[in-house]
């Protein structure tokens, strides 16, 4: 399905956007999804510990799958023979595939040696075999997977990269985007460009302007989800990119899932997000709850409770009283504590359901605030 974007309303004070991602298939059938939107991640063509039916019950729009991992196993050819990714994983809503770039660059050991103009040389973490991924190969794989949105292949530089390194990286990423666009053959699939540039205003503007000039179906802001990046740099990257992105296309912030970052990014004009964090937190016993906490550096982070802790042994309340998810409506903290202490996977399933639904509920509340021109008040209350 091809995607277009309709901007319906902007909050009068902040400029936060409420709109719709509109997907149209080859037969003219339409699916519409409101934004802002959080997208659950199904790296291996599955959202960890959840069935497609359980994911659907959290009321998502788009979900993600990972190009690199599916290329490695079962292979793009197998997915294509199955009828494409939707048939293979039994998901009939929109799917976005990333380019595989983030995984590839994390596996490339000697960046100066392994990253060439042609592509990236690296070794598989599965069997140590030598692999080579190019912009053309990434697009070819995504065409075969038949996702609804494909991502351009970009270099993912570390947050510590200096201005000159980032400049060279951006110029190469732009050339790679042009190469990928030329070989994109799936007429029923949208292709997004990616803006890079670290926390530098001039590089973000250059990257955005050059990428937008190629007229992609949507645009992503990359390089903001590095583990060693501070929040100020993340927010600068967004602020320096957004003014140069068109109003009539989706804006996607890649790899970001902390509630406070969703709120701050929507205030800056972002539409859609993805992150593995809700299911990863769940597998370690953590449940997201309303509010924020502060790190020792006084940076805001998501508020959570760990249901492995003994204080929940006889706590017969739901994870959150006002949550409408399946876990909160049917099970108690005490029961989930018991499951996690016994290493029963159903505990991770229930927490994953809650955490994904938590982030989707957060976007639902943000949408209502934008429509009512009260997003600034919503943000202040949330951060208080």
SSE diagram, text form:
Layout: E1 2-10, E2 17-24, E3 30-35, E4 37-39, H1 52-57, E5 63-65, H2 67-72, H3 76-81, H4 85-89, E6 95-97, H5 101-107, H6 111-114, E7 120-123, E8 130-133, H7 135-145, E9 149-151, H8 163-183, E10 190-195, H9 201-212, E11 218-221, H10 231-241, E12 251-253, H11 259-267, E13 272-274, H12 277-283, E14 286-294, E15 300-306, H13 326-330, H14 333-341, H15 345-371, H16 375-383
Parallel strand pairs: 4-13, 5-6, 6-9, 9-10, 10-11, 11-12, 12-13
Antiparallel strand pairs: 1-2, 2-3, 7-8, 14-15
Q: How would you describe this structure to a colleague?
A:
- The chain is of the alpha/beta class and 384 residues long.
- The chain folds into 2 domains: 2-282, Alpha-Beta Barrel (TIM Barrel); 284-355, no CATH class.
- Helix content is 40%, strand content 20%.
- The chain is built from 16 helices and 15 strands.
- The strands form 4 sheets. Strands 4-13-12-11-10-9-6-5 form an 8-stranded parallel sheet. A 3-stranded antiparallel sheet has the order 1-2-3.
- Strand 1 (2-10) and strand 2 (17-24) form a beta hairpin.
- Helix 7 crosses helix 8 (163-183), helix 8 packs parallel to helix 9 and helix 12 packs antiparallel against helix 15.
- The model has no long low-confidence stretch (mean pLDDT 94).
């Amino acid at each position: 399905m091809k995607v277009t974007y309709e901007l319906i309303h902007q909050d009068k004070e902040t400029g936060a956007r409420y709109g719709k991602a509109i997907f149209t298939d080859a037969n003219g059938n339409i699916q519409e999804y409101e934004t802002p939107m959080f997208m659950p991640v199904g790296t291996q063509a599955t959202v960890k510990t959840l069935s497609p039916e359980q994911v659907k019950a959290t009321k998502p729009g788009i979900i993600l799958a990972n190009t690199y991992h599916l290329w490695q196993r079962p292979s793009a050819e197998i997915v294509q023979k199955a009828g494409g990714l939707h048939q293979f994983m039994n998901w009939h809503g929109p799917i976005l595939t990333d380019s595989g770039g983030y995984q590839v660059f994390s596996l490339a050991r000697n960046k100066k040696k392994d990253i060439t103009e042609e592509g990236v040389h690296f070794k598989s973490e599965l069997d140590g075999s030598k692999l080579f991924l190019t912009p053309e190969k990434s697009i070819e794989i995504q065409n075969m997977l038949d996702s609804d949105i494909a991502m351009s292949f970009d270099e993912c530089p570390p947050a510590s990269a200096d201005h000159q390194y980032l400049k060279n990286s951006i110029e190469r990423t732009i050339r790679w985007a042009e190469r990928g666009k030329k070989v994109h053959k799936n007429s029923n699939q949208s292709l997004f460009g990616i803006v890079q540039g670290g926390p530098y205003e001039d590089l973000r503007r250059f990257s955005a302007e050059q990428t937008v000039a190629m007229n992609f179906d949507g645009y992503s802001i990359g390089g903001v989800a590095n583990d060693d990046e501070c929040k100020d740099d993340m927010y600068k990257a967004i602020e320096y990119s957004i003014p140069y992105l068109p109003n009539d296309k989706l804006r996607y912030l890649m790899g970001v899932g902390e509630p406070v970052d969703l709120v701050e990014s929507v205030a800056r004009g972002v539409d859609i997000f993805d992150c593995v964090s809700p299911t990863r937190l769940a597998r370690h016993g953590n449940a997201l709850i309303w509010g924020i906490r502060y790190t020792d550096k006084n940076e805001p982070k998501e508020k959570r409770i760990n249901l492995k802790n003994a204080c929940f042994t006889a706590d017969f309340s739901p994870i959150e009283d006002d949550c409408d998810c399946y876990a909160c409506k049917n099970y108690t903290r005490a029961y989930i504590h018991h499951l996690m202490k016994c290493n029963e996977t159903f505990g991770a399933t229930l927490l994953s359901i809650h955490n994904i639904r938590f982030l989707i509920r957060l976007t639902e509340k943000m949408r209502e605030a934008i429509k009512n021109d009260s997003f600034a008040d919503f943000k202040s209350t949330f951060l208080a």
